[in-house]
Structures are given as C-alpha cells and as structure tokens.
Amino acid sequence: MKFGTKCLHAGIKPDPSTGAIMTPIFQTSTYVQSSPGVHKGYEYARTQNPTRSVLEANIAALENGKFGLAFASGLAAIDAIVKLLEPGDEVISANDLYGGTYRIFTKVFEKYGIKFHFRDFSDPNSIEELINNNTKLIWLETPTNPMMNIIDIKKVAEISRKRKLLLAVDNTFATPFLQTPLDLGADIVMHSVTKYLAGHSDVVMGAIVVNDPQLKEQLAFLQNSCGAVPGPQDCFLVLRGIKTLHLRMGRHCKNGEIVANYLRNHHAVEKVFWPGFEDHPNHIVAREQMSNYGGMISFTLKEDDIKKVFGILEKFKVFSLAESLGGVESLVGHPASMTHASIPKSEREKVGLKDSLIRLSVGIEDADDLIADLDQAFG
Ligand SMILES: *Cc1c(COP(=O)(O)O)cnc(C)c1O
After folding, report:
1. pTM score of the predicted model
2. Which residues form the pocket of ligand 1, taking CB atoms under 6 Å from any ligand atom?
C-alpha cells in the first residue's frame, strides 16, 4: 500500500457489529466478561480501547513499523521511553531540540539518576566519544527545532547498532510523509501527534512506533502502568486528521518553499533556516533521507532590538502568534520567549537560537495571502 492509501485505510476496517464505515468512538471504561477472565480481548480502557487500537495500528503502518502505542501527549510518550532506563544509565541527546524534551530530561529524570549529555549531532562521529558502558539511549530530532538542522539518521543508527544502544527519533517535524526513521535504522520513533498527524490544532496526543516485540511489551507495560493514555474521542479526531495527512503535507511543502524563497529575498531578513535550500549545510542529507522539505521555517531579522521584533510579531493577521505547529493554519512563534524559554539563554545561543529568531509553521492557506501577510508585518 502506498502512503496516501495507508493514511485512509491502514489498520481501519468497517465496524464488524454494525458495518459503520468510520471507526466508532468506544466511550467506555470497561467491557463485560461472560465468566471471570473470559472476554473479547478488552478488559479495562486504560489497558485497551478499540478506537485507540485502530489509531495505533494506523500510525504504526505510516511509519513502516509493527507496533504503535498512543499516549496522552508527546511528552507522555517521551516519559515512557526514558522510563525504559534505570538509575545510572546515560543518554546522549542532540543539543538542538524541543524545549519540553530538554525540560523533562534535565528537570525530571536527572533527579532519578539518569544522566544526559547534549551534543551537536551534525558530525555523528562526535557522538562516539561520549559513549561509555552506562550509555543506553541516543535521542534526536530532525529537522531540529527551531534551527532546522538535519541529522543523518542512518549514520547515527550505525553507531547506535554497533554499540548496542537504542536510537529514538522524534519524527514530529518531518512526519512519516517526509521520512521514516525505522527504515533508516532507528529503534523507536516518537511523535507529538498534536502537530502534523492530528493536523487541526484541536488535540494533544503522543505516539511511539517500534518493530521489536520485546520493546513493544516494555512500552505497553509502561503505558498501562503509568496510565497516560488518550481518550477515545481524541483518537477518533486523529484518525480523521490522518486521512488527509498526505494532502496536507503536500501543500505544507509547496507553501513552505514559496515562503522560504520570499524570506530569503527580503531586505529585513538576515538568514533563513530551511533544509530545502541547496546551500543549507545539511541539504544533501536532507535530500537523501527526506522526500521533501516541509513547511517549518525559521529566520533571523537584521533588526535584533527585541521590542522591534515583538512589534513585527504583533502585526501578523493571517499567521497567528501561538505556540505549536503542524496545523492547517499558519502559525508564527518566537522560540526564545515561547517554545524554548525553558532552555537557558546561554544554551540557546550555543545552537544559534538568537532573540531575533522567528519560527513559522506554514499552513495550507493560499500562498499569496501568506506572502501578503508577511509583507505587511515587515512593512
Ligand atoms: C510539541 C512537541 C513535543 C511535545 O509534544 P506534546 O504533544 O506537546 O506533549 C515533542 N517534540 C516536538 C518536536 C514537538 O514539537
């Protein structure tokens, strides 16, 4: 099955009891048993829910993986992955990553004796010198947020395999439409489903996809034991959202390219970070591991007076000033004060995240209206 067909059909069958074409919302907390322990595979809705099971199978298929697990949020999914580890274990993470991921690593899990190292992964060989006998997990996002660097998943996976570590890739920005990390050697793919997979800025959810049955069992144990599961209504909304993932992504990519080129030629703009540019430092890796370049774009202004930067941010009319990304509507954000405020300024500056950096999640509106909005905001 090709990608678009999978979006609509993978894991989805008409409901056997009624023939309903759409997966029903099984709004129930428990399931009847005909005799103690005799049931139809469903006992209690924290453990299993049929609406959730269909969504989990659908997301797994999109990632070319065997097993999917849905969580109450992207961070709940990250929480489960780190809980695979024991006190004393070490994690090597790319240093350019979602602020909330940095926060749960350093402010929550360090307390429980897990050690995190942050490193620039643009040269994957630099990871090796941090590996020791306690290292268990390598963590990365690509494209990175918000600097839009590209990390070579295949190269990192080679190192991880050789040293028998787990490699987890946060695939939120790319989505399986653009890249499938399991095919490139990753062990775990994680999503903030909240973003492109749900796609309509109306749900908070997370997901994990793996191929290894043992890893799946461990994660399902954590999903059930810790209990951060999504409700059936949200699973239904995400199933509906995913039916147009391929169409939305096609338009996000097209609009992204138009907006990136417009910004690059604008006199107020200092630098545009978008992996589709041939002179982007990791463009060749992007071209190999991604099928297109997406609608996430960051740029710095020549103006670095924070008041003036805020003045521009306040003027947007079609783009909404908001956290988050990946919805059908265009959003503009200011990472230093919003999504990445939980990362200290000194750490932000190490990865080039200046106070004048603006991040766009280019939506699926008509591109002319997006350009006109940028024009008036800069004006
Ligand atoms: C939003 C986001 C998360 C966190 O997901 P939530 O659904 O908000 O908990 C993790 N990683 C990336 C790249 C994100 O954009």
Report:
1. 0.96
2. 73-75, 98, 100-101, 141, 145, 170, 172-173, 192, 194-195, 204, 206
Cα–Cα nearest to 153, from 94, 66, 77? 94
Contact at 8 Å (CB) between 255 and 367?
A: yes
CA atoms within 13 A on the CB side of 115: 10
Which DSSP category does 231 fall into?
P
Residue 286, exposed/middle/buried by CB under 10 A (0-12, 13-18, 19+)?
A: buried
Residues designated as active site: 46, 98, 170, 195
Residue with CA at minimum distance from ligand 1 atom 7: 74
Pocket test for ligand 1, best of 147, 172, 237, 325 (most atoms within 8 A of CB): 172
Token representation of residue 42: 């469903």
The two three-digit tokens of residue 202, written as one number? 């109306």
Name which residue sits closest to atom 1 of ligand 1, judged by CA. Answer: 192
Q: What is d(CA 356, CA 302) in angstroms, rounded to the nearest whole number?
A: 8
Q: How far is the CA of 266 from the centre of ligand 1 (A)?
A: 30
Nearest CA to ligand 1 atom 9: 74
Q: What is the Cβ-side half-sphere exposure of residue 107, based on CA atoms within 13 angstroms?
A: 9
Domain 3-242 fold is Aspartate Aminotransferase; domain 2 (3.40.640)
For the CA of 76, the closest atom of ligand 1 is: 9
Would you list the domain boundaries of the chain?
3-242, 245-378
**pLDDT tens track for 248-301:** 999 999 999 999 999 999 999 999 999 999 999 999 999 999 999 999 999 999
CATH 2.30.30.60 describes domain 245-378 = no
pLDDT in tens, 16-44: 999 999 999 999 999 999 999 999 999 99
Q: How far is the CA of 367 from the centre of ligand 1 (A)?
A: 26
In ligand 1, the atom with minimum distance to the C-alpha of 101 is 10
Rounded (5°) CA angle 356-360-361: 155
